[in-house]
Amino acid sequence: MRRAQALRDALEQDIVTGKLRPGDRLDEQSLAARFEVSRTPIREALMQLASTGLVELQARRGAFVASLSFRDVVERFEVMAALEGMCGALAARRITEPMQNELEKAHEACVREASQENADAYYYANERFHHIIYEACQNAFLAEQAQQLHARLKPYRRLQLRARSRVANSLAEHQGIVDAIRAGDSDRAERLLREHILIQGERLADFIASFDRAA
Amino acid sequence: MRRAQALRDALEQDIVTGKLRPGDRLDEQSLAARFEVSRTPIREALMQLASTGLVELQARRGAFVASLSFRDVVERFEVMAALEGMCGALAARRITEPMQNELEKAHEACVREASQENADAYYYANERFHHIIYEACQNAFLAEQAQQLHARLKPYRRLQLRARSRVANSLAEHQGIVDAIRAGDSDRAERLLREHILIQGERLADFIASFDRAA
DNA sequence: AAGCCAATTCTTGTATACAAGAGCGTTGAC
DNA sequence: GTCAACGCTCTTGTATACAAGAATTGGCTT
C-alpha cells in the first residue's frame, strides 16, 4: 500500500512548513496513532527522512527534527554554491534552445513578481528559475543533488529575501547568469552562479548576526 | 542491538568488493537466513543502502544491487570533480600546518607505493591523500559528501588505475595540487583537483570504450 | 534537604505473524 | 498446438508481540 512513502511526504511537509520545529521529538507511537498506522511504516518514513538530513536519528533515543547549527547551514550553502556553479557551467555548454527559452521566461517571471512585492510569489518564481538551470545541465545526478540540497536550505533561504535590496540585487544577478548561459560562457556562468549562492549565505549570516544582537 | 548498522556495513562491503554484483537480487528472506536475523533489520539495512545509491528498491519487487549505466558513472565523476575542486579551493585557504604536513606525507607515501608496483597499496595511499584534502577544507558537510561519493565510485576508479602511465600522471598531478595548497592558491588548487578527477572519468571512458570494442 | 542509587516504566529495536500484490505455471478451450 | 485466463505461490509491505536499553521518579542514605 506504499503507506510509508505518503507518511514521508506528510512529515516532510510538516517539517518544511514549520509545523514541526527543529529539535521536536518524533515519537513513533504518537505518529503511528496520528496517522492510524502501525509503527513499522512510521519507522521507514523516519529513516528516509534521516537520509535526507531532515530528521536526526539517535540510537535508542529516537528521532528528532534536525536542527542545523549556524555553521551547518553555512557549510551547506558553500556546497550549494559549488553544485550550482557546476550546473551553470554545464548548462552554458549544453543547454538546449527550448530550455534557454524557458529559462528566460522564468527570469521574466521573477522580474514581474518582484515588482508585485509578493514575497511568496517571488520565491516560487525564483525557485523555478533555479530548477531550470539544474535540469539544463544535462546531468541527472547533479540535478538531483542540487535539488535535494536546495530543498533542504529552503527555510533558510526565505529568511534573507526579506531585505528589499536583496531582491533587486538577486534579479540583477539572474540577468547576468542568463546572459552568460546564452553566450555559452561556462566560466562566467559558473562564477556568477557560485557568487549568487555565496551571497545568500552571507546575507543569511548578516541576518542571523543581527538577530543575535537583538536578542 | 544495533544489528541493522552492522548488516549495512557487511552488505556494503560485499557490494563494493564485488561479491555481490550489480543487478543481483537481494532477497530479504535469504539475507535474513544468512545473517541469522529477522527480516526487519535486513529491511532497515537495505533502505539505508538505497539512500546512498548502492541498492535500488523497486516497489513490491524487492531490492537489487544498483547497476550504474556508463552515463550514470560519468555524471557522478562530474559531480565528484566539482566537490573535490571545492575541497581543494577551501583547503588552500584554510588548511592547518599539521594537516599540510600530513598531506605531504601522504603524497610521499603515494610516490613510494607507486614505485613498488603494488596496485592495491597505491590505491590505499591515494585514497588517504584525497581524504586528507576532504578533511582539510574545514567543511564537515562537504567532506562527508565528497567521501560518500568517493566511496560510491571506488569500483570504477580502480579500473582506470591499471594503465601504467595513469599512475605516473596521477602522481604529477598530486604534486601540483600539494604545491597549490601550500601556496594558498585556491583557484589553482581547485582547477588542478577538478581536472585530476575529470581525467579519471575520461580514462574510465576510454577503458570502457576499448572494452566494448573488444566484446 | 540534597544527592545518589535502584526499580519501574516508557521507548526503541527485533522477531514473528498476517495481508496483499506480483509473477509464474498450469490447464483448458479454441 | 497455441494462447489466454485462472489460481497458486512467493515476496514484499504492514501489524503486532516481545526484548532490551534509557530515562525518570521515588526512596533511601548521608
Write a structural description.
The structure is a homodimer of 215-residue chains. Chain A is mainly alpha-helical. Chain A folds into two domains: 3-65, Orthogonal Bundle (Arc Repressor Mutant, subunit A), CATH 1.10.10.10; 70-214, GntR ligand-binding domain-like (Four Helix Bundle (Hemerythrin (Met), subunit A)), CATH 1.20.120.530. Chain A is built from nine helices and three strands. Chain A has helices at residues 3-16, 28-35, 39-52, 70-94, 97-116, 119-136, 140-160, 164-182, 186-214; strands at residues 25-26, 55-58, 62-65. A three-stranded antiparallel beta sheet of chain A has the order 1-3-2. In chain A, helix 5 (97-116) runs antiparallel to helix 6 and helix 5 packs antiparallel against helix 8. The first copy, chain A, is globular. Chain A starts with a helix and ends with a helix. In chain A, 37% of the residues are buried. The interface between A and B is medium-sized, with 24 and 24 residues. Chain A binds a DNA duplex (30 and 30 nucleotides) through residues 1-4, 27-29, 37-41, 43-44, 59-62.
Described by the principal axes of the CA atoms, the overall outline of chain A is globular
Helix content of chain A: over 70%
Number of strands of chain A: 3
- Within the CATH hierarchy, at the fold level, what is the topology of the largest domain in chain A? Four Helix Bundle (Hemerythrin (Met), subunit A)
User: By CATH's scheme, which homologous superfamily of the largest domain in chain A applies?
Assistant: GntR ligand-binding domain-like
CATH architecture of the largest domain in chain A, please? Up-down Bundle
Oligomer: homodimer
- The total domain count of chain A is 2
